[in-house]
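Box 4.2: Ligand-aware structure prediction
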Amino acid sequence: MLRAGKPGEGRATMPEQHSSINSVDWDPEQDRADGTRGDGLRSAERFAEYARLREQAPVAWSDQLGGFFTLTRYADVTAAAVDTKRFRSGRPFIAMPDLVGQIPISLNPPEHRFFRRLLNPFFRPERMRDLEPLIRAFAVEHVEALIEAGESDAMTAFCRPLPARALATLLNLPEGAWQDLLAQFRRFDAVGWKPEQVNNMILGVFSEHIATVVAQRMAEPLDPDDDMFSGALATEIDGEEITVEQVIMIGVQMIAAGHATTADSLSSAIHRLAEDPDLQSRLRADLTLLPDAIEEFIRIDPPLHELSRTPADVVDLHGRTLPDGSAVSLNLPRPTEIPRCSTVRTTWTSRATPTGI
Ligand code: HEM
């Protein structure tokens, strides 16, 4: 049976059930045909590789990272993502096997449903609408500082601070807490892509930070309908209060899930707009196109390329057998496979971009 492993922990071999398929389909670390790394997650080679896999290997096998399968086609990915009986959440992506316990992402029904019911009200549309003017004001403040400076790195000056401030606002963190968050995020740069250290940072540093906030909420609760931590602390499961550890893991999940995703998406959108003055002009001229454009930016350059799932039972798909407990990733970027948004399509299809849009 396959198991999730850490990079470099050894190569898995194709499980026995796979004697009919004896090839390794891809190497996720390799961007170029000659075996070297290209320009990383946004490289044209990587997107070409995804397209090749969709065509030739709907269930692709890689012997890297301990060995894992990747579902590459849209229909299979969307079906598996919601098929919680056959494809279980809870084992983090194979490069990060220790990153367990975040709530709700690592849970399955019925526990997952309970926590989603608890958390959904804090993301309800009216609440988001109330936050919007504040977040817009933050955005303007950072853009004005950028204009004042004349020149700046967009990631440092805008893409990272804005989501840190938005998260701090969402979680009712005290004034200035976003700068502490930013300082912690900057520590990721020093760590680089070393999964164990990333795990330690997320679970250690973030949970320490959140534990302090949760302790404050226990001492001085805020309105439980408006404050996620106070609301969670006031909730009971089957007559038992949620544990402080569970509340902390909710906070860790918010920070871990909510910052890099949005910072990276903002930077990809800025990069795309910088490369495409026509698209910039079109969006400036018709601001009603913005929501569709944002959807498109995230679809074309998603900050996450793979989701992890674990088959609860043997799954047969496209002639391959996925053993129960094997590591399965669901490949997300799909620049060409699903219909694009009709309002912005014309501009983008006429462009020759690395993703072929
Ligand atoms: C462009 C921005 C974002 C993208 C592309 C994104 C993407 C995703 C994806 C693909 C998942 C599903 C993971 C899975 O099924 O295994 C997910 C889950 C989640 N994300 Fe995000 N996310 C973004 C921003 C955020 C933000 C800002 C927050 C919080 C403030 C957040 C909180 C969560 C949570 C709590 C979950 C778990 C949901 C559950 O298990 O029901 N995400 N996100």
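In the box above, the bound molecule is protoporphyrin IX containing FE. Residues 16-108+304-349 form a domain with the Uridine Diphospho-n-acetylenolpyruvylglucosamine Reductase; domain 2 fold (CATH 3.30.43.20).
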